[in-house]
Write a structure and sequence with these properties.
The structure holds 2 protein chains of 2 kinds. By secondary structure, chain A is mostly beta strands. Helix content of chain A is 0%, strand content 45%. In chain A, strands 1-9-8-3-4 form a 5-stranded mixed β-sheet, with no helix packed on it. Chain A has a 4-stranded antiparallel β-sheet with strand order 2-7-6-5, with no helix packed on it. In chain B, the strands form 2 sheets. In chain B, strands 2, 4, 5, 6, 9, 10 and 11 form a 7-stranded mixed β-sheet that branches. The chains are: A mainly beta, B mainly beta.
């Protein structure tokens, strides 16, 4: 079972920053936090991952709290094309090969 | 560069028939994974290949399901004697090295399998 907790759904206005939270209170020291998203009828798309430092790439920023028990994915200027289900995944050390997907957060970007 | 390619994109078959689903990973990726997503359900892990061997087959739901990978590249997922509950989207992913925790998996768009 996934070891993360995310809100079921969120709304955000187009052009605003979308902040998606994730709780992973049982994370271990060498487990990574990964974020993926899935747009309807497509495969999951990798967004970003991190261990303990904040990370930024061309798609998003990942903020991980100092105790590593939670994180936030930030889409800085959301567009309608960012409407998708967003998955926060902790990649286990044991059985690290498989990703365990929970239900994710359904993010709707409104015009 | 080219991403993970899966074929066919859609497959409709009758109950009891065998089906083969194909995955072409990203060039140079040594790890390959199969998942499936049933209607309204989350993604479910099926099997993981590192090179041509499969260290983790724990997600295969029954002995009707098998997969192989040859030449460290293309993989085929075979479902024998298909049942209606096999209807799902079958997704393939690849990564540079499955033994590295910090290597992301990249997914194809899947094969939508419908069993009549």
């Amino acid at each position: 079972d996934a070891k993360t907790t995310q809100p079921t759904s969120m709304d955000c206005a187009e052009g605003r920053a979308a902040n998606l939270p994730c709780n992973h209170s049982t994370i271990s020291g060498n487990e990574y936090v990964y974020w993926y998203r899935q747009i309807h009828s497509q495969g999951p798309q990798y967004i970003i991952h991190g261990l303990k430092n904040n990370e930024t790439n061309e798609m998003a920023s990942l903020i991980i709290t100092e105790d590593r028990k939670s994180s936030t994915l930030i889409l800085p200027h959301a567009t309608l094309r960012d409407t998708a289900v967003y998955y926060c995944i902790v990649r286990y050390v044991q059985g690290a090969q498989k990703l365990v997907f929970g239900q994710g957060t359904r993010l709707t970007i409104n015009p | 560069g080219a991403g993970v390619s899966q074929s066919p994109s859609n497959k409709v078959t009758e109950k009891g028939k065998d089906v083969e689903l194909r995955c072409d990973p990203i060039s140079g990726h040594t790890a390959l994974y199969w998942y499936r997503q049933s209607l309204g359900q989350g993604l479910e892990f099926l099997i993981y290949f590192q090179g041509n061997s499969a260290p983790d087959k724990s997600g295969l739901p029954s002995d009707r399901f098998s997969a192989e990978r040859t030449g460290g590249s293309v993989s085929t997922l075979t479902i024998q004697r298909t049942q209606q509950e096999d209807s799902a989207v079958y997704l393939c992913a690849s990564s540079l090295d499955g033994r590295a925790y910090n290597q992301p998996q990249h997914f194809g768009d899947g094969t939508r399998l419908s069993i009549l």
